[in-house]
Specification:
The structure holds 2 protein chains of 2 kinds. Chain A is α+β, with helices and mostly antiparallel strands. In chain A, 18% of the residues lie in helices and 44% in strands. Chain B contains 16 helices and 5 strands. Chain B is elongated. Chain B folds into 3 domains: 5-168, P-loop containing nucleotide triphosphate hydrolases (Rossmann fold, 3-Layer(aba) Sandwich), CATH 3.40.50; 173-204; 209-329, Up-down Bundle (Zinc Finger, Delta Prime, domain 3), CATH 1.20.272. Classes of the chains: A alpha+beta, B alpha/beta.
């Protein structure tokens, strides 16, 4: 393998794939970055076996030559050293050459590094992509989908399947569901691509967080390919693979109540701030619990009482309160998490009794549903 | 010493047949426990079996090619779907099992198969073993576990009952001695070493070690001191013995040697002189054999075994050795 590459593009690509490389791995080869040179360009791959990031630098872009390929081939280099080296090279161009027995020479200006490489055949193989079976979503929508659901995944490993977000794709629609069995976040959106295909996969929450960090806030379409073991997100010159979780996601459709006994419409920001204030005292106590009761005249009373610290009561003006009177307790943290993801200035909260889960929607937008289980208090 | 299936067939025919049949009939169990003495080829068999499951160019339904990408990666520990766990320090800790569980909650990276091997499974802490238990109980599809241990009696019975136990038979020292002789080991060394290990690499390493040759001499001298002047034995320990035997493994080796001397004594008593390990000691042993009852001899041997066992736990090695020497003296035992 031998090629000459522009340094700034090299740095960018190495930085991108470094996000997937961790030092603590049981598989020695994963401490390296795989570099593959073909006639079309150079591909960099980093992986921690859960997520893999592939960055492609084309030989030519917009008439400019970025990489001059002299000889094709591939090599794996120690990520820690390689990334430091490329950052500190003196000139704008870098020559890389693999001699026999995986010795790699990195040359820039008068500096020359000799790195011991590893056999690229040892590197995990990423799934081959079938181009025709892709789904498409704009990057910003994808990021929103992730932001609105991933916070609700479970952090405990007792039920591993709940540490992921369930993506269901059917009838040209994508539904993302995350739950930790105390709360649930669900978001649906239309999706472009193959109409007939239907999938149900569970993607680890950690992977989605990483993905959302890597994607830019643009309206560029991201291709999504779902394979047997992995899911692939494909942006321009950047491929993000994530492994899927094993097992069946619990059926959540029956959890979401369809009718309601008490409907409250309230200004999101006022409500969020009131909950935030009430949680100041609640935070110290167990469970972070605040109490909400409906009052006459369209007011909501939000209160929290921790006997050893003190108590707080606040009234919030609502737009409307319909239905039965209600006193309910819930976790302030869950409520704030849910409210932060909702778009729109007003929200509708639907209660079905003090012991039943309640649902929060944006007033005019039913695509996002946040469900929270109340806390039993006496 | 086992790198190929046919070698496994020679050395462990029963194991070979069991693994082969389960593979050919496609009835691979979800968990195996490979159990047997040191150097009986358990680790090699585990790797072979892993290769046989993942190999791309398998022949006769079971024999891995050893040169395809998957075989190579299993050998070098780089296969993303084959996970190997070994003790981190003295024991296998709960965190290691948890990482393994996290790993196995996800789908495989490349194929649909996954395999994990736990070497020295007896060194799992209790918490680790109990976490593993739940994991063993509810295997995912196409997941295979191989637990490898030298001390099957130290495995939790609840784990044992969830694995298919495959016993590796101890190799006969005579057979191994032949192998050693073929490898150019001197006859006297070959006899001693064949009683200490059954791993060829380790044996050859021992043979070339200056330390080991010296250790034999010192151990024989300790024995001679013990029989001629028991009171001096304690001094001897301080003067020479501890300078040579520093690490726990070294002391363990030394105790093995001492045990072999006493075993020779027993052989002399039972008139099985052709089985002697320390041939040059024959005259001395002959004399001693007349002075000791076989019951007392058995007691002494059990004292050595006891010391070996205590060495595994956290003991002060100096006190351990002193106690051993006192117990090996003639007369009533001290402690």
């Amino acid at each position: 393998m031998r090629f000459i590459i522009q340094r700034d593009r090299l740095i960018q690509s190495v930085q991108d794939v470094m996000k997937a490389v961790t030092s603590r791995t049981t598989i020695p080869i994963l401490t390296g970055i795989k570099i593959t040179a073909t006639e079309e360009g150079v591909t960099f791959t980093g992986s921690d076996s859960d997520i893999s990031i592939e960055s492609f630098i084309p030989a030519e872009e917009g008439g400019d030559e970025i990489v001059e390929i002299k000889e094709t081939g591939s090599i794996v280099l120690q990520a820690r050293f390689f990334s430091e080296i490329v950052k500190k090279l003196p000139l704008g161009t870098v020559e890389m050459q693999v001699t026999n027995s995986f010795q790699t020479i990195i040359r820039s200006g008068k500096a020359e590094f000799n790195l011991n490489g590893l056999d690229a055949d040892e590197y995990p193989h990423l799934p081959q992509i079938e181009e025709e079976k892709t789904l498409k979503l704009p990057a910003d929508l994808l990021k929103t989908l992730i932001r609105q659901t991933v916070f609700a995944v479970s952090t405990s490993e007792t039920r591993p399947i709940l540490t992921g977000v369930n993506w269901k794709i059917e009838n040209g629609q994508i539904i993302c569901i995350a739950t930790d069995s105390h709360r649930l976040a669900m978001r649906s959106a239309p999706i472009e691509g193959e109409e007939q295909s239907s999938y149900s996969v569970v993607i680890p929450g950690k992977s989605l967080n990483e993905l959302s960090k890597i994607l830019d806030d643009t309206t560029d379409l991201i291709d999504i390919v779902i394979t047997e073991n992995q899911v692939l997100f494909k942006a321009k010159h950047l491929l993000f693979f994530s492994r899927l979780l094993e097992g069946n996601y619990p059926d959540t459709s029956r959890l979401i109540p369809t009718e309601s006994k008490t409907d409250v419409v309230v200004h999101t920001k006022d409500f969020l701030q009131a909950i935030d204030r009430a949680s100041l005292l609640a935070r110290e106590g167990r469970n972070n619990v605040v109490k909400l009761s409906t009052m006459d005249g369209g007011f909501l009373e939000i209160s929290s009482n921790t006997p050893e610290i003190g108590k707080v009561i606040e009234e919030v003006q609502t737009e409307t309160i319909d239905g039965e009177e209600l006193k309910i307790s819930f976790s302030a943290k869950y409520m704030m998490d849910a409210l932060k993801t909702l778009e729109g200035t007003e929200i509708r909260v639907k209660f079905t009794g003090a012991m039943r889960p309640f649902v929060i929607h944006s007033l005019n937008d039913e695509t996002i549903t946040q469900l929270i289980l109340p806390v039993r208090t006496y | 010493m086992i790198g190929k299936w046919n070698e496994l067939e020679q050395i462990q025919p029963d194991v070979y047949r069991m693994l082969k049949n389960s593979r050919i009939k496609n009835r691979v169990a979800h968990a195996y426990l490979f159990e047997g003495g040191k150097g009986t080829g358990k680790r090699e068999a585990a790797l072979l079996f892993a290769k046989s499951l993942f190999c791309e160019q398998i022949t006769e339904g079971i024999v891995p090619c050893d040169h395809c990408v998957n075989c190579k990666r299993i050998q070098s520990g780089n296969h993303p779907d084959v996970h190997v766990l070994e003790p981190d320090g003295l024991s296998i800790k709960k965190e290691q099992i948890q990482t393994l569980q996290e790993e196995f909650s996800k789908k495989a990276v490349e194929s649909s198969k996954k395999l994990y091997a736990i070497f020295h499974a007896d060194k799992m802490t209790n918490q680790a073993a109990n976490s593993l238990l739940k994991f063993l109980e509810e295997p995912n599809r196409e997941t295979t576990a191989i637990l490898v241990t030298e001390q099957v009696q130290r495995i939790l019975p609840t784990i044992l009952s969830r694995c298919q136990v495959i016993s590796f038979k101890p190799l006969s020292p005579i057979y191994f001695k032949e192998t050693l002789l073929q490898n150019g080991v001197s006859p006297s060394n070959a006899t001693v070493i064949s009683h200490l290990t059954q791993n060829l690499e380790e044996a050859l390493q021992m043979n070339s070690q200056e330390w080991f040759a010296q250790a034999q001499k010192i151990m024989v001298k300790l024995y001679e001191t013990l029989r001629s002047n028991p009171l001096k034995a304690l001094l001897y320990l301080q003067e020479e013995w501890f300078a040579h035997f520093k690490e726990k493994e070294q002391i363990d080796r030394g105790l093995d040697l001492l045990f072999l001397i006493y075993k020779d004594l027993l052989h002399v008593q039972l008139d099985k002189r052709n089985q002697l390990v320390f041939n040059h000691l024959e005259k001395v042993l002959e004399h001693d054999a007349l002075l000791i009852s076989s019951q007392r001899l058995a007691e002494k041997m059990s004292v050595i075994l006891d010391a070996k066992k205590r060495l595994l736990s956290n003991t002060n090695t100096q006190l351990l050795m002193e106690q051993l020497v006192l117990n090996l003296q003639e007369g009533s035992s001290f402690v």
